[in-house]
């Protein structure tokens, strides 16, 4: 919030929160656990996890690299 990056932060944390919520559901975890590689593309559970992963990645990238004040810090301290 201090760096005017609320939208990116919300995007990342919303996706992460939903991912953790889904993993907390035993039926959801079981559906993923029994999934074969051939079934992944047709699995609603897998597609949701894939979508949430992409949302989390996009939010983090925007937060860390598109936020003017944070980018120099990320470049100096996060990337080795």
Notes on the protein architecture:
The chain is mainly α. It has one domain (about 5-80). About 70% of the residues lie in helices and about 0% in strands. It has four helices and no strands. The protein has helices spanning about 5-25, 25-35, 45-65, 70-80. α1 (about 5-25) runs antiparallel to α3 (about 45-65). The mean pLDDT is about 90.
Helix proportion range? over 70%
Average pLDDT: 91
Count of all domains = 1
The low-confidence parts are none
So how many helices? Answer: 4
Per DSSP E runs of 2 or more residues, the count of β-strands stands at 0
Shape: elongated
Q: Structural class of the helices, strands and pairings? A: mainly alpha
Largest sheet: none
Sequence of secondary-structure elements: HHHH
- Write down the Rg: 16 Å
> What percentage of the residues does DSSP assign to strands (E)?
under 5%
Straight-line distance between termini: 26 Å
What features would you highlight for this structure?
mainly alpha, 80 residues, elongated, 0% strand
SSE layout:
Elements: H1 6-23, H2 26-33, H3 44-65, H4 71-78
Helix pairs in contact: 1-3
Short description:
The protein has 80 residues and is mainly α.
